[in-house]
Amino acid sequence: MVALLLLTGWVQLFGLLGLVAGGTVQSVGPCGQTDRLAWLGLGCLLAQFGLEVWGWGIPFLVVGCILTLVLRIGRSLRQIRALDQDRDRAAAASESV
């Protein structure tokens, strides 16, 4: 459960990584905020009917958050690299003038 709480915070944090670096917010991945809420809501609903969902539901969400982190970090880094290359090209063009 602690791992899920930490990962949830990291998913939000790394979704904003690109924005801080001058890019865009990353909302890709299977465990974004609305997806996590939907899964938790479904789990709560199923648990009300006596089904044991948290034994597999929490690990499922942890794996989903890890995958979401990998996707968001990867996209943010690609976007940041592209922005840096654009800035370098613009600087080189202004120096040659």
Explain what this protein looks like in three dimensions.
This protein has 97 residues and is mainly alpha-helical. The protein has a domain at 29-82. It has helices at residues 2-15, 17-20, 33-48, 54-96. The longest helix has 43 residues, at 54-96. Keywords: Membrane, Transmembrane, Transmembrane helix. The chain crosses the membrane at residues 51-71.
Please outline the major beta sheet.
Answer: none
Low-confidence stretches: none
Total strand segments = 0
Instruction: Specify the structural class.
Output: mainly alpha
Q: What is the general shape?
A: rod-shaped
- SSE run: HHHH
Number of helices, counting only DSSP H or I runs of 4 residues or more? 4
Estimate the mean pLDDT confidence: 90
Helix content: over 70%
Percent of sequence in beta strands: under 5%
Gyration radius, to the nearest Å?
19 Å
What oligomeric state is this?
A: single chain
Distance between the termini: 58 Å
Transmembrane segments: 51-71
Keywords: Membrane, Transmembrane, Transmembrane helix
Structural features:
97 residues, mainly alpha, 4 helices, single chain, membrane, rod-shaped, transmembrane, 79% helix
